[in-house]
Amino acid sequence: MTDDLPLTHEDIAEIAAILENSGYRELDLATRRFRLRVAKGDGEHGGMTQEWQWSGTAADVAPESQAAISDPDAICSPLPGTFYHSPQPGAPPFIQPGDLVGPETVIGIVETMKLMNPVHAGRSGTVGDVLVPDGTLVAKGEALVRLT
Asked: Percentage of the chain with pLDDT > 90?
């Protein structure tokens, strides 16, 4: 493992231990810099498998998110689920057209398997359009917001 990895061997071992003791079969962690997938093994050997994927080139992007490459102004869903504009019903939306956002600005939430996952802008810009209505089921890689 090289020094530029965002997680250490100990971090991965701890993630695998948490997964092993949970009711889940796999964990798929994605950031702007990398994606880590840890899964419980099948068959007689059991164990864990891990898979790294580095960000930065078109070859590293999953096929379902290739649409994001054709629209560089789009902020896309990092996973499938239901997209929500606000943290709870009746609350103001995270963003509106005309708002300035930075890389860490939360633009919405995608609910997957009863887990609420914040979606960050990932870059700076001005919100042009919110492309998906509140409470809409979205696919991984689907454009949610367009920056101007």
From this structure: 39
